[in-house]
Every structure is written in C-alpha cells, then in structure tokens.
Amino acid sequence: MKAFDLSLYLVLDPDLCAGIGMVETARLAVAGGATMVQLRDKHAGTIRMIETGRALKQALDGTGALLIVNDDVEAAIAIGVDGLHIGQEDMDAMRARAMIGPEMILGLSVESEALANAVDPGLVDYTGVGPVFATPTKADHKQPIGFDGLARLVKASPVPSVAIGGLKADHVAQVFAAGASGLAVVSAICGTPDPEAATRRIAAEIRKVRA
Length: 211
Fold this sequence. Notes:
Number of strands: 8
CATH class: Alpha Beta
Helix content: 25-40%
Number of helices: 8
CATH superfamily: Aldolase class I
Number of domains: 1
Distance between the termini: 26 Å
Strand content: 15-25%
Structural class: alpha/beta
Radius of gyration: 16 Å
CATH architecture: Alpha-Beta Barrel
Strand order of the largest sheet: 1-2-3-4-5-6-7-8
Order of helices and strands: EHEHEHEHEHEHEHEH
C-alpha cells in the first residue's frame, strides 16, 4: 500500500518561482509544511526536467515530502521520483502504469463526474480535481467547477482526491468540507515574498480544519 499525504500539495511553476527558483521554493515550502511537491514545467524538455528533478530530490531528501513529476514519464523514471501525474490529454493511465511499474504513485487529473467515475483504482492512486476556480497559472484549464462541483467529483472518484485551481489558505475549510483529501496550490506559495510563511499559513488552516 502506497502511503502519501495529499493535504498540502505544492505545484511548482517556473515563471512564478523565477525569483528564487523552483528548488529553493520547494525547500522552503516543505519546511513550512508542504507534504507533496509536483514539478510542472510545460516548456522544459526531458533533459531539463531531469536536471531540475534531481536537484529537487536532493533538496527534499529526508524531509518526508514526496516528489511528483507532471506529464514527463521518461523524466519521472530517470529521476526516480515518488510519483507521476498525468492529465487526460497526456497518456492513458494503463500505459502510464505499465511504464512506471507498480510502486510509483500515479495521479490523474479529472474535470468531470464522467471522468472521475471512469478512474480505475487498480491503476490510479489519486485524482487531481478541478479547476475549482479559474487560474492564470494554467491557461488551457477547463471550466471552473466551484465547491459544489468539487464535492460531486470527489464523491465520484474511487480514489483520494486533491483539489486544484486558484486555491488559497482561505479556501481550506471548503476544500475539506467537499470531501477532498487536500488542496494543490501554485500562486499561493510560488512567487510569494516568503514561501515558507505562506505555506505555514495554509498548513495551520489545515490543522485547524482537521482538528
């Protein structure tokens, strides 16, 4: 059984993180309580993804936080990360699972109840559900679903779900009330003046809700 904590899931954005870089942003966020870190860089080739991913892996070593690679299965395997996250347009879950093997965590983005219902828990370990709100960090995102839509998709998903899309510390209670296991954040941490403090604020809200 793979053990992972979706509660505070940082998705790195190379543009927003440009000030101090993705590796330092991730290090500070994990110090502040981030439980998972996803390397997402749609403009980087596999070689650059591997370079960044290896630096991230080294920075997070011993912290307990898990490292996920978005989309690039070749990079995920080469780095030896904890997991791979794919979208509906990237590759199908069966092929992804065949490539990464049984041990690596596999996450899948779902934007509708039909897609959530279609998830095979024998292949997929968690779903990324959203976007809850419109967000500039993903220009091609689907129609926002709001918290009512989040609750419906979480209920339809046969595996744990992490909410994504314009989420901040103020939304923690609503995310967990909808049944999600956590929230994925980008701009709420990336590009902030103090990523560690920004993460601590979200982590404190999560502790409050869970208590």
